[in-house]
Amino acid sequence: MTTKEMVFAALFAALIGVLGMIPPIPLGFIPVPITAQTLGVMLAGCFLGKKTGAISLILFIVLVALGLPLLSGGRGGLSVLVGPSAGYILSWPIAAFFIGFAIEKVWSSLKVWKVIVINFIFGVVLVSLIGAPIMALITHTSIWAGLVGATAFLPGDLIKAIIVAVIAIQLKAVSPIEQKLNN
After folding, report:
1. Tens-place pLDDT, residues 127-152
2. Domains of the chain and any CATH numbers
3. Torsion angle, CA of 139/143/144/150, rounded to 10 degrees?
């Protein structure tokens, strides 16, 4: 890993922490709030690629585990990594990796609609398929109820996927993926 990749990973971990300063939107019927941080997860994969994107999220989770209040609502510490949000948070590096992997595969023909589809599949559906069952197990509810409850995130997450797609296309020329593929 180059120094530049380490800097990008650290910057994106910080960006996701800053997105955590936006107040969460509690839903009441599901113990996991709507946050802006998944926008950062999708952007990390789209901009940094699979390896650096995943590392940035691993770094973020390590900082949260150490107690830094980087999660939405000022949460941090090991307790959040065993609470209802644990599956969602722990799915973020996986999502960033798969988003980055797919983006790198279509990089030469990157279009907004392709980025939206990739973000929706890996940044929304994959995160929900990992997070909702773990939330259900932790809260002692059925996995089906967890998955149904997670559908409340879909409209907002689709909007985030669209926003990230537009940003990613605009930043394509300065992305580390572009520099890596041109070398």
Report:
1. 999 999 999 999 999 999 999 999 99
2. 3-182 (1.10.1760.20)
3. 60
